[in-house]
Each structure stands twice: as structure tokens, then as C-alpha cells.
Amino acid sequence: METLFIYGIKSSSLIGIFYLAYYILLRKETFFNSNRWFLLAGLISSVILPLVVFTKIIWVNPSPTTFDWSKIPATTPIENDAFEINWYIIFGIVYSFGILVFLMKFAFDFYSLSKILKGKTIQQQADYKFINVAENVSPFSYFNYIVYNSTLYSDTELENILEHEKVHSTQNHTLDVLISRLFCVVFWFNPLMWLYKNAIAQNLEFIADSEASKKILDKKAYQFTLLKITTQENCVAITNHFYQSLIKKRIVMLNKNQSNKRNYWKYALIFPLLGAFIFFFQVKVIAQERESESTAVEHSKPVENSVDIYKINKNTTDAELKEKTNALKEKYDVTLSFSEVKRNSENELIAIKVDLNKGKEISKKMVTKGTEAIKSFGIIVSKNENGLLTVDFATDDTVLNKKNVLISPNAPLSADKEIFINGSKSSQEELDKLDPNEIESMDVIKKSDKGTIRIVTKNFSKTLNENDIYIDDEKADKNELLLLDQNTITKMDVNKNEKTIRITTKIINQSADNIDIPTPPTPPTPPSFTLKSPKPPVFPKTPKAPKGDPITGDKKAWKEYESKMEDFNKKMEAMEPEMKAFDKKMEEFDKQMEPFNAAMEDFDKKMKIYEQQMEEYHSKMNAKKGK
Asked: pLDDT at residue 416 above 60?
């Protein structure tokens, strides 16, 4: 469920990127067909790109570690019986309910369409199927079906309408409408998806208007037809209907000059954004430890003074469990058995019982269970210089990350040593007062002539496990907190309701070894856009047609309507000088846009340099983390 949630967030982000790119850069351009494929490519990319993951492996050198095992108590069995609200399940229920509601709406729209088409006479002409209906509905097309009411329009108006709908049918615009509707069903929670659907529908109308006007001699009559169709309010949702978008926008686009082909560079701006998305969210960095010659122990032979760790995590398969069972039996004659194994829908371990036995010498058991994936633990097998075999369990991450480590029982540290209890620097006296039974884990590290003892108590470990840890607003694990220099902490907030621990430090730009973190490059500043596009003329309000038709309807009302339409036509003719003035302003605006377009090309070049600098910066950062 968590995977589905993350996928939905990433897909919604990509939909938002494409929509904003279209809205800011492309919606005023006359590249209607290119815009169509751009918008469809955005939907396809939002489905595919979140599934593409690139793996980057960083090799790190292991550091020799010495443990005083006599100070570490036996690990308490892990229990996860406490009830907690699973927000992912709640999210899944709400999301499924939304899917069901919008699927029902989708099915109802199909039912409404079939109700109109059922039992009607079809006139086949070439590749088109014309249906003349009596209902007062706006003309629409559905694949190669074109539906209209001929009694509502004159011959010229009907010819204009049919030319428009033929474009929809020929170019299969119905597929675009259906695809956008299906995306609205899946991403119903994303408000930008609904705006995206409207953008697709509006652009299809621009395409149909542009292509139809090329075949119509009287362009003004076509615009009048657009205005008249606005009076038809009944539309079928899943079809290409004649009145689909705001009438002013369509008339403005019809009269707008063709965009300069040099503006095609705007489509290329989406690639840096997609590259940034992949770089920041689709690259999985894996730190892999090199095998150290000084600490490696051959797995097939028992080595004295050695420790073998058999790690088990949520992704351990049944085959790997069987392999560990055979290895322990063959190498140490220890009987290892797994039972009560349970997995969730993602095949992750959520419960397991482990039994370790060797005659009367060894008998160990551990049970972990719950509703979420188990935490990693390990089976530790050690043999000292006298050949005494010890088998136990451990959950300490520092121990589990070592496959095999050399040990020296009771190895003394030098006088120059540091002691940390629960991350705070402590003295030898405080260490001596500590009850050994309260110790969860002890990490003894020796570097050169200086030793470090790090101890975590059971109560403190429980607190850390129950809360999310954030250091300087970045999520961290408990080991990062324990390794943090306490003198650098300026503020610590513990929120019991949100179960978070937030820590603010004095030094953010220094690593643990006092090495300055590389300064990130500064992104280029995009050119400011201060121009304002000319406002189109305000068109007079279109008279509303009476109900019914001129033959069987209210003849007086229709006569008044015709009188109002004549007055409306005169007003529209009077607006011709205003429309020509608007066209000139648009030409001047396009010229004023040329310096901005040139600045954007320069900005694009700087962005490519910035992306290269960011790649170098992240490489340096990953190298620092690997040390």
C-alpha cells in the first residue's frame, strides 16, 4: 500500500509538471496539433516514469571493529502486538471509494450516450455516420458518429457544424477525451488532473476550429455559428461536442496569427524538468561495503576468535531461510528452524518464530510478529580461543551490517577513551553505575590509540524506535542521532502526538570528520516576464433561443429571437474595427516577446550547465557519505 501511495504522488507530480508547462508556455501558441501530442505524452510519462528506477552503487571501505561481547546482554525477543492505526489502509479505502464513485459516473455517461443513439436512423456518408435527432442537444461527435438537430440551424450553420465535427471524427479526438476521463477516474484526488482534462478538450476544439475554418469560405459566418451554439446547453460528457470551451477563447484563437516556428523551443523545456525528476526521485543509491582482507572470514570453514552473522530482514525469501538453516547445520552442527512465517501482500515478512538448538548446550528462541514488516535481526554465532561456541540474537544495526568481524574477548581500551551513553558523553563513574541488565547494546570501537564506547539503554532505544527522528529537517535513524556530537545541538523538540523527535544543530555544513560539505551550485535566474497580452474585445451577449424549434415552437418568441439576432449581428459587424485593432496589438505583442524568447534560450543553456554542476555536487556528496 505504501508503494501505491508513493507511485500516486510521483505520477500526480508529473501530471502537474506537464500541465504547468502547457499553461505557462504553450496554451497561447497556435501549435494545436503539437500541443495535443504534448498533453498526451504527459499522461503516458506520468504512468511510466515512476516505474523506471536507476540504481547507483557506492563502494565504501569497512572499518575494523572490536566488540567486548561479555558486556552485551542477551537480546529480548521482539514483539509488535501493540495496536496502531494503519493510515495506508485508510488511504486505500478512501481511494477505492473515490474510484468507485467516478467509475459509476463514467458508466452513467455511457448510458446517457446510448440512450440518445438507440433506435435512431443512421445515414452513412463515406466514413461518417450522421444521426439527425429531434432532441434539443448540442451537436457532437463520438468516433465516426456525428449527431445534430437540423431543425435548429440554417443550411449554412449546419454546414459549418458538420465540417467542425468531421475534424473531430477524422482525427479520433474521442480517444483523447476517453483517455483523459479515465485518468480523472484514477487520479480523482489530484485537482490538476481535472484542469488537465479541460486543457485537452479545449485544445481539441482549437484543432477542429482551425481545420474547419480552412474549408469554409465565410469565416465570419463560422464565428456567428459558434455564438449561436452557446444557447444549446445540453451536452453529452464523453463526446466531442460543438460547444466545449469558452467561446471568447475560440474566437480569439481563430483570429490569431500563426505562432512563430521559433517558439517550438518551449517544448524542449520539459526535458530538464523530467531529468531533474528522474535524478532526484528515480535514482536509488546503494552503499555496498568492500570485503576487507583483514576482517574477512571464509564462510565454509570454522575460524576461531570469529563471529558469523546470519542476517534476516523483511525481504528474506524462503529459499534464503533454508540456505541459512543448512549453513548453520553444516558449519556448527546447530539446528536452526523457522516456523509461524507470515507475509503481507508485498511478500514482506511480518511474523516469524526462530528456534536454535544444539543438544543440551544451546537452546534459544525468538518470536517477532505484528501487522507491519519485521525489523532486521541477526543470528550471531561466535567461537572464542578455547573453542567455546555461543549462539544468540541481535538487532543492533552496527552489528548486523558486518558479515564477519574479528573479536578479542575482554580486549582493553587505551587510557585515552570516550564513553557515550544514549548519545551523551559520560564518565567512567557513570558507566560503572549503569546496571548491565538495562543495556540494549554496546559498541566498542578502537581507532589508532583512541577508543570509543557507545552504549544504548533499553528505555532510550524504545523511545527512539517509537518516534521518527529528524536532524536539521532531514529524516535520520537512531544511529545517526547517537553519533551526533551533543555540543552541536541547539534545540530538541519531542512531539508525543506526532511521535517525532526534531533536532537542530549549530553546524549543518560540516561532516562528522570536520570536512566541509561541498557548496551546492546556484541555479540561474529565469528571465522576468513583465509583458501583458492585449485583452480581446468584449463581445455583446448572445440572445438566448426559445425552447423547441421555429416550426412547432412559440412563433412569437422565435420572431423576437430573430429580431434580437439581427441586432446582435449588427453589433458584431460594428466590432470589426475593434477586432482588427486587437490583431495589430497581438502582432506588436509577438514582436515584444522576441527578446524574452532569446533570454529564455540563454536561460536554457545556463540550466544545462547547472545540471552538470549538480551532478558533480551530488557525486561529491555521495563520496563524503561513503567515507
From this structure: no
Q: What is the pLDDT of residue 287?
A: 57
Distances in Å between the Cα of 575 and the Cα atoms of 229, 372, 486, 508, 579 are 20, 69, 76, 65, 6
Handedness of CA 445, 449, 450, 455 (dihedral sign): positive
CB distance 9 to 277 below 8 Å:
no
Side-chain half-sphere exposure of 372, counting CA atoms within 13 A: 15
Coil, strand, or helix at residue 443?
A: strand
- Could you tell me which residues come within 8 angstroms of residue 96 by beta carbon, excluding any fewer than 6 positions away? none
CB distance 179 to 163 below 8 Å: no
pLDDT at residue 190, rounded to an integer: 92
Residue 362 contacts residue 391 (beta carbons within 8 Å): yes
Alpha-carbon span 225 to 231, nearest angstrom: 11
Average pLDDT estimate for 303-308:
55
pLDDT at 281 over 60: yes
pLDDT band at 292 (very low <50, low <70, confident <90, very high): very low
Q: What is the SS3 assignment for 626?
A: helix
Question: How confident is the prediction for the chain on average, in pLDDT?
Answer: 77
Single out the residue of 62, 28, 79, 583 nearest to residue 372, CA to CA: 79
SS3 31: coil
Q: Provide the b/e sequence for 319-356 (b: ≥16 CB within 10 Å).
A: eebeebbebbeeebebebebeeeeeeeeeebbbbebeb
Q: Contact at 8 Å (CB) between 183 and 197?
A: yes
C-alpha distances out from residue 505 to 461, 488, 626, Å:
21, 5, 22
Q: Is the distance from CB of 397 to CB of 378 less than 8 angstroms?
A: no
Tell me the DSSP string of 238-268.
TSEES--S-HHHHHHHHHSPPPPGGGGHHHH
CB-hemisphere CA count at 13 Å for 289?
A: 13
Look at residue 299 in the predicted model and tell me its pLDDT: 36
Could you give the CA distance from residue 74 to residue 362 in angstroms, rounded to a whole number?
13
Q: Pairing between strand 417-421 and 450-457? A: parallel
User: Which DSSP string corresponds to 298-336?
Assistant: -TTS--TTEEEEEEE-TT--HHHHHHHHHHHHHHH--EE
Q: Rounded to whole angstroms, what are the CA distances from 609 to 131, 264, 539?
A: 58, 21, 48
CB 18 within 8 A of CB 38: yes
User: Could you tell me the CA-to-CA distances from 185 to 8, 107, 190, 412 in Å, in that order?
Assistant: 13, 11, 10, 67
Is the whole model's pTM more than 0.90, yes or no?
no
Interhelix angle 173-186/32-48, nearest 10 degrees: 40
Q: What pLDDT is stored for residue 81 in this prediction?
A: 47
What integer is the mean pLDDT of 21-27? 91
Please tell me the distance from the alpha carbon of residue 10 to that of residue 49, in angstroms, as a whole number. 9
The strand pairing partners of 457, in sequence order, are: 439
Residue ranges of the alpha helices (H) in 145-264?
Answer: 155-170, 173-186, 191-215, 219-229, 247-255
Q: Identify the three-state secondary structure at position 58.
A: strand
Q: Can you tell me the distance from the alpha carbon of 160 to that of 153, in angstroms, rounded to the nearest whole number? A: 10
- Of 153, 236, 183, 166, which is closest to residue 18 (Cα–Cα)? 183
Closest CA to 241 of 193, 202, 185, 192: 202
End-to-end CA distance of the chain: 35
Q: Are 403 and 298 in contact (CB under 8 A)?
A: no
